Amino acid sequence: MATPARGGAVWIGALALTLAVLAAGTAAAQTLEVLRRPRNGALSLAAGQGLDLVHSAEPLGKARFRARYLSRSQSVAIPGVGSGSAYTGTYAFAYGLTPALETSVAIPFLMDSAGGLNKYGTGDPCLGIKWSRPGKVPSPMHTAYQVLIGVPLGYKGQHGLDEVGGLRPFSSQALDLGLQMLMDLNFRPASVYLNGGYFRSGNPAGQTELVYGVGLEVARASRWASANVEYQSRLGFAQQARAAAALKFGVRINALRGTELEFNREYAFLDYPYGSGVTVGVRLHGYLTGHRRLESRSALYQPPPRPKRAYKPAHVLRLALVDFAGYEDLRAGRRLVDKLAGRLAPHDSIQVVDLRRYEDVPHGGFLATVDAARLAERLGVDVVITGEFARYEVDRFAGLHVPLVAKLPEAEVDLSLRYRVVTVAGNRQERRVQAEVDQASGRSRLRRPIRLLPADRRDITVGSTAADLEDAQERALDDLAGRMLAALAARYAWVPPDFMP
Known about the structure:
This protein has 501 residues and is mainly beta. It has helices at 4-23, 32-35, 332-344, 369-379, 466-491, and strands at residues 64-78, 82-96, 101-114, 117-122, 126-133, 141-150, 176-186, 190-201, 209-218, 225-236, 242-256, 259-270, 277-287, 293-294, 317-321, 350-353, 383-395, 401-402, 406-407, 410-425, 432-447, 451-452.
């Protein structure tokens, strides 16, 4: 696992690279022919969860809201008039009606200027409604259906700029519709967004378009920053087919709780209505009902704390840990028992009996239930834990290797244990024995810096040393002991709840 210092260095490097990409180049002026085409008002930025061009299937959640503002400006030039700029500022708001249903609205504000002439006003508002499943957040996968409606309420007046041809229409002057199917695939380090949609304009000059998009967001659950890349392609089909595409790189910085600053670098292809350039925006996320407040989006992905269960033992429980069977040459069972006993030692409610003090009792092996109950009776203990290792694998060369190109040296330790918990209660005349079998696993990884142009896959001079492998095995045993105690704490009342995850 990366240390905090190393993780901070990675984030600083990623942020520096992103800002360098944003600063590279100047915004390319788009042709007037493309800008003057009527634009489908249903094509809007993601008002709820999502990136900019690519929407997310993940729901906002009941009573949660998302407000955002995105600014874009590009240079333009009108022959015979002069140079100028086309500014677009989009305001959007989304609200979760139920855990799975949300509604949204996006209103663009447009301002064009060239040669001392200008025009400004609002564009067509876009209304949206999205239904997602499952409504639970977080989830490994979300799917959603979204309906978008572009309402022809944009500014339709005439300014001095329109007398020389103008730059772009502010309204499509017709009702525009869009239907999208969304899917999210959420992994621990990153999330993948998939969009597919059908958009139809009520304006005869506007084309019916098929729109699809792909997005990747890295570290979305981080409380500091996240990076993303997205690609959207639009294909219009009519008597004359048209196509437009855009590629966007961006970063989001959590400036304050519930407040995100975003910086994006956009590259346009084919007949995309806006030229390449830089976009800057801000997002707010929080709750509108109950205790109204801003809340960071990363808080949604943190598991809720488990309720503390009452722990008031009536007496001191005596516990016997039998050395686990298997891999005796590595002393695996003895080492694991020592780790379990060390973690239980600070708790006065449990007394771990050291079997090595007795000569006429079994010290190791996977005891049967009858033998474990006999051991408990002879030593006067309440619980006996016994088991065996099913797997103890140490792979010194587990890293990724591309022959003669690159190699990621990595050592991996993988452990698996099958154990039995035998509980003995009651007196000698009415003794009750209960046995339950469970499994636990542990793992650790040791990574080295990547090597370019490696000579041999099993080059031991750059791999992990014997001391490193020993340390990796100890960390795997620690992981196994922690998982085992967590499973016992969730099942048995005599285990302190401090071990629960």
